[in-house]
Write a structure and sequence with these properties.
This is Reticulon-4-interacting protein 1, mitochondrial-like. It comes from Salvia divinorum (Maria pastora). InterPro entries: ADH-like_N (IPR013154), ER (IPR020843), GroES-like_sf (IPR011032), Lipid_raft_assoc_Zn_ADH (IPR052585), NAD(P)-bd_dom_sf (IPR036291). It contains twelve helices and 18 strands. It is α/β, with parallel strands linked by helices. The strands form four sheets. Strands 5, 7, 8, 9, 10, 17 and 18 form a seven-stranded mixed sheet that branches. Strands 13-12-11-14-15-16 form a six-stranded parallel sheet, with helices on both faces. Strand 11 (about 180-185), helix 5 (about 190-200) and strand 12 form a beta-alpha-beta unit. Helix 4 packs across helix 5 (about 190-200) and helix 9 (about 275-280) runs antiparallel to helix 10. It is globular and about 60 Å long.
């Protein structure tokens, strides 16, 4: 196993001696580590913490990260319960997790922007099968960015997956601009709250629906209006029309509301795309084809009836987006509040807390 390590004054090959004339020394190879594996689908009890999971060789563009904190996303719980089984079942057992914050332990030989010992944070693509619930996570160079010194590993690990999902919708699909009006349906969750902060940072006028317990935090983040969906009638409370609607709830009622509140030429984006559910029901090939047909039909209908764009929004790795997220996080303009942390060894308890809604907010696992 040979990985290129970069420090400010030396280049070292793990398991070998530098031939570049700098400080020559040998370093012990870390060949295995702890990881949380999903051997089968089910409740939190199916998660297994194993001590000797092999660390694979790095590809040229990959980075080995010594994880210090990893967050528990709703997607993690859904995958564990069987969501996306058409894709993941043939690959079991797989390592759970998407977000990570830690230090660079090694880099592939084409990596240029990061070096060993640097604190970083980032997130894997939703379809990654070697996740971040592990002592040593592997991510591509463009899936990581330097961690701001102003935030902790716990705070950093809560941000990237949710914020990149929001960034993909608002900046990549809707291409929001200063002065536009943005509605976030479900602004109290991690993606919704990230979307609010990204839209405010872009100079947009932001409204949102949320639970009453989130209103104070959302208004403090810069939203101009926060409507409590449990007590207020949105049809009476939300006035005017919007350039973009991000629907993090994605049920028929919120979809109808969002579409009806859009200006002509506006963008409706939902996080509840149906590709995975169709693939799970009808098989990967037929299911994805059916999902594409359903999406195209909705897009045509919305274009004809309302003159708007309709999209399913998914998280994607995006170096530009991650760089903006880093800058906003460093300046305190983007944060995802963490409600509870668990030791890495209590991953089952963390998932149970999310499943049973014992913990409503963001959950993070801390690693020694």
């Amino acid at each position: 196993m040979r990985w290129l390590l970069r420090r400010s004054s030396e280049v070292v090959l793990i398991g070998g001696t530098s031939k570049l004339g700098f400080n020559e020394f040998r370093r012990t190879v870390v060949s295995s580590c702890r990881a949380v594996l999903l051997p089968r689908f089910g409740g939190p009890e199916v998660l297994e913490l194993r001590e000797d999971v092999i660390i694979p060789d790095l590809k040229p563009n990959e980075v080995l990260v010594r994880a210090r904190a990893v967050s528990v996303n709703p997607l993690d719980c859904r995958i564990r319960a069987g969501y996306g089984r058409s894709l993941y079942e043939p690959l079991l057992p797989l390592i759970m997790g998407r977000d990570v914050s830690g230090e660079v332990a090694a880099v592939g030989n084409s990596v240029r922007s990061l070096c060993v010992g640097q604190e970083v944070f980032g997130a894997l693509h939703p379809t990654a099968v070697r996740g971040t619930y592990t002592d040593y996570a592997i991510l591509a160079e463009d899936e990581l960015t330097p961690k701001p010194e102003t935030i902790s590993h716990v705070e950093a690990s809560a941000i990237p997956f949710a914020a990149l999902t929001a960034w993909r919708a608002l900046r990549s699909i809707a291409r929001i601009k200063q002065g536009q009006r943005v509605l976030v349906v479900g602004g109290g969750g991690a993606v919704g709250f990230s979307a609010i902060q990204l839209a405010v940072a872009a100079g947009c006028h932001v409204s949102t629906t949320c639970g009453g317990e989130s209103i104070e935090c959302i208004l403090a983040a810069g939203a101009e209006q926060a409507v409590d969906f449990t007590t207020e009638d949105h049809e009476q409370s939300i006035k005017g029309y919007f350039d973009a609607v991000l629907d993090t709830i994605g049920i028929p009622e919120t979809e109808k509301m969002g579409i009806n509140l859009l200006k002509r030429g506006g963008h409706y984006m939902t996080l509840q795309g149906e590709a995975a559910s169709y693939a799970d029901t009808y098989g990967l090939t037929m299911g994805l084809a059916m999902a594409t047909t359903v999406l195209m039909k909705k897009q045509i209908q919305c274009r004809i009836s309302h003159g708007i764009d309709y999209q399913w929004a998914y998280m994607r790795a995006d170096a530009e987006g991650l760089d903006e997220i880093r800058r906003l996080s460093a300046s305190g303009k983007l944060k995802v509040p963490v409600e509870k942390t668990y030791p890495f060894t209590q991953v089952r308890e963390a998932h149970e807390g999310k499943d049973k809604r014992i913990v409503a907010g963001k959950v993070v696992l801390e690693l020694n």
